[in-house]
Amino acid sequence: LFTAHGIMNMRNKKWADDFSPLQEDGPSYVDRFYTKAYVRHLFAAQEILGMQIASIHNLAFYLWLVGEARKHIFAGDFKAWKDVMVERVTRRL
Length: 93
Prior knowledge:
mainly alpha; two-stranded antiparallel sheet
């Protein structure tokens, strides 16, 4: 899953006991409704619902990211914002 804080590989064991929302400040309803542990379980069980949740989350994230980029283009500080965001969103969590 892509987030503003980095990339989460939902197959990693470290998410198995994390019952916090996917992304508390996320732009989509799935971010607050489903937990990391549940989505990890769905991925481990190869349930289609896990991929559907991930797709909804990722699409909402990229829509948010493009909207933020647009705001910073208009504000004239896109380059500085981009440099920070590229480092943040490519970090592995």
